[in-house]
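Help! Submission page says 'invalid entity' but I think these are all valid:
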Amino acid sequence: MQPGALSKALKNGAIWGFIVLELIFFSVAGEFMSLSDTAFMDWENMLLLLKQSAPIGIIAMGMTIVMVNGNIDLSVGATFAIAAIILLDSMTWPFMAAMGDWAIPFAWLFALIVGTLLGALNGLLVWKTGVDAFIVTLGSMLGYRGIVFMFNGENPTSHLNWTLVDFAEAEFLGIATASWFLLAATGAMWFLMTKTVHGRNAYAIGDNREAAVNAGIRVGPHMMINFAIIGFLAALSAVVFYSESGSVNPNDGQLYELWVITAVVLGGTKITGGAGSVIGTFGGVIAIQLLRKGLGHIGADTSTVNLVIGLILIAVLFLDRQLNVKGKEALKV
Amino acid sequence: MATLSKQKIGSVLAKQGILIAFAVFIVAFTLANNKFLTVDNVFSVVRSSAILGVMALGVTFVVISGNLDLSVGSMMSFSTIVVLDLHDKIGPFLAIPAMFAMTLCLGAFIGILVGYLRLNSLIVTLGMLSAIHGLTLTYSGGQNMDIADKEGTWFSVFGQGTALGIPVPILIFALLAAVLGLMLSRTPFGRKVYAVGGNGTAATFSGIRRARTVFMCYILSAFCVATAGLIQASRSLGSQNTVGQGLELEVLAAVILGGASLMGGSGTIFKTVIGVLILGFIQNGLLLLGLQFYVQYVVTWVIIILAVWLDIAAKRGRLWSPIA
């Protein structure tokens, strides 16, 4: 075995080990502490868990490539809300209403285009102004949220289309629509990041930007495309979720950026860029949802979930550092 | 000669840009609405900015040292809830120091993780944002916290009182800004903070204890958060668990608007105060113009990006970034 192979295997497998640990713990603890009779490891329960992971999970796939690229996007929650409003509001526009159910694909299209454009705008600003992505997206998090409020003030935007609801609630091969979109997004991003030139360049730029520039990679357009991708995925997440619920509050999607970043970091993506994988992120998303559901299963309330997730995030960061240290020099405080 | 003076004008504009923008705003809003520049209005703006401002003072230290603090919002909720709860249990005299001690413990915990263990501050404070929120909910049992006897307590002086005709929150904010401003610009500790943020390795080689400096920055930040929590609790004498939610990003926006670089090593307390006041006056000015509260979000967005962009552009000597 090569030196470092063990720690690498440990790191890559860590999130799945953690998931197994969670499953065992909640199954055993559930036997004694749960109020319901059904087992935690119930198939139905696991399918529901996959469906509930979808909104955060779909966005997390985009956050993976943005963070591997060395950037970060804090505006995804606001983009999510804007896309949701476009989806529901556009179906009430006169020419759309006249189309009947044919309005649905157009509403989806509008929402996805708007999401992509908002993401691309972030990317363009990062590229052309040279301002740090953290600041640009911190600003647009506020700005996009302001735009959300401009639609309907503080009132919710609602539109129920039963065809759309039926589609969102449908199951194919026993798996819900939202889950299929999560799996599709994971698959597509996995392909993009591991099998294409764009994906490899994203790693190269995140790992060493100077070297990437010297190697002739055009850094700017790559960053912009990645921001467009996360905007698209934030809109996709909204479209899938609000097709079913049919009503959006102007505050919806707040703090999503924090949940998404937590999932991505748990999945092993480095915050400084250059390392990370979509599969790991998928594990991170599932781990968080398991934790929420599991703690609920054994009767803990939401406060415990917040506490545990926060501490686990810090613990993961600590372990990651310990596994990453090269020689004793780095251990010096 | 002509190019020289042009450069000079450029650098003056860049260095004092935030002050000039502030002056332009004040003049524009004053012309647009004659209620804007009255003593009452100015007091009310500064008083409502005081909580955000006090937190921004502490975060300025953290940012100059090259780190981030995203946990100040939920930490402020925590100290508000704790002091309100203890007020009725052990009385305000003991409740205030007890709350400060508990909040400082949280700050020390973050300081150890980021300073001594050298963990990434963004992720650590993100985790603490969630963890402290959970802690607050556990402490309060999810209930709103209220003081039983709202009329008969002197505790309300920190948020509602006035001294010498000036509201107490403004006095606290001004006093803290003066003390911390002097600490940052006139003491060895302040210089260490700049050194650690500017070039951590160089600072270590010149004998500065980097870990301890970062640790102290988080302690200071926690102290400011506790003070903000005290003002908040005293102003409303009752609170929800989520009172500080989202404030961390507004605080950061104010600090960045003041010209502190997220890379560390630059920024001043004075400019942060200007950043806080700009946010406060924009919010107030737009409301006086009859615009909805959410318009300020969009305006803040544009201003933050413009401010940071122009700052960077002046430093590199060209408007557009050289990224290919």
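Support: the input was valid. A stray whitespace character was the problem, and the output above is from the cleaned input. Chain A touches chain B through 56 residues (CB under 8 Å).
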